[in-house]
Amino acid sequence: MINELSHNNEYKHWLKDLKQKVLKSQLKAVVKVNSTLLEFYWELGEEIVQRQTQARWGDGFLKQLSQDLMAEFPEMKGFSKRNLEQIRKWYQFWSAASAIAQQPVSQLWQIPWGHNLKIITKCQSVEEAVYYVQNTIDNGWSRSVLTHQIESGLWQREGKAISNFNETLPTPQSDLAQQALKDPYVFDFLTLSKQHSERELEQGLIEHITHFLLELGAGFAYMGKQYPIQVGERDFFIDLLFYHTQLHCYVVIELKIGDFEPEHAGKLNFYIKAIDEQLRKEADQPAIGILLCKNKDRLVAEYALSDIQKPIGVSEYQLTQSLPKNLQSKLPSIEEIENELGGEL
User: In percent, how much of the chain has pLDDT > 70?
Assistant: First the structure.
């Protein structure tokens, strides 16, 4: 196959044109490295598919093409046979997508090649892939953050919390607030025993505030833990208080290590009222509350929120997702490992 292609006039002419495109892309790439490269990759993927379909060149043709391009452009790393196969796969994924008309191809060129490959490799549907492309552009995710978000199932969890936002917030604030919530939240960065307390959960989240903010999502700004408020002659303490820079409102978070109970919503409603009265400024939207619990009965939560006047969302949280339950309790915590290491020094 390779020897045949070397003497194939059609292949020779196409290879000559392809080399000219590479040279042009190199010149443009001085200014726009990523978008120019991916625009070229898209055209290359399209031509590879067309040549293999129309000229009936098999996969052996990619090996020959890889050798010819690497010989001509030895300083470029994108012409290995493996990468040519990935370029073809990337093009086929998006060109066959029914959503491509709503998803301009140029959006794919706004994120790095490694991000593009991660998305088409790990996503199970076009809709999911579109979601991660858009969020990578909007939030500037690194490849490691993107990988974490996909593996934690962010697309499946976002906007799934039970809430009364439609009844307590005006549109579009209600829609934006709903999208800001997830169910469940995954706190797999924590190492807590099965008998952990609410205070230990709270402390763990604050000690890992970077991971916590990443899991909460874009826009959350940390204001404090055990945030004090005074109502009448009594002092109260809110587990966690945030300000959401996109929703322009305070977010009150209460942590419960057990099952959701209706009285939890009443207490959170009280806290939200206090924050609105004491902290909310004229430019702020109404505060919202998030109740994080270990488990919830969906119908009980819906009943509990139905007559609540303040906007509240109820979500579950998970401490681990990557390990089987029968192994989780057998592994030492970070603190135990540190103590062991400290004893040897």
Answer: 85
116 in Cβ contact with 108 (< 8 Å)? yes
Is 260's pLDDT higher than 50?
Answer: yes
Assigned CATH for 158-328: 3.40.1350.10
Whole-number mean pLDDT of the chain?
Answer: 86
Do residues 209 and 253 make contact, with C-beta atoms less than 8 angstroms apart? no
Q: Model-level pTM?
A: 0.77
221: left (phi over 0), alpha (psi -120 to 50) or beta: beta
How many angstroms separate the CA atoms of 345 and 225, rounded? 35
Q: What length does the chain have?
A: 345
Domain ranges of the chain: 1-96, 98-151, 158-328
Residue (of 246, 304, 240) closest to 271 by Cα position = 240
Task: Give kind and range of the element (H or E) at residue 137.
Answer: helix 126-139
Per DSSP, 158 falls in state B
Render the burial of 175-189: b for 16+ CB within 10 Å, e for the rest. Answer: ebbbebbbbbbbbbb
Q: What is the Cα–Cα distance from 224 to 202, expressed in whole angstroms?
A: 11
The burial class, CB within 10 Å (0-12 / 13-18 / 19+), for 8 is middle
At 331, is the pLDDT very low, low, confident or very high (cuts 50, 70, 90)?
very low
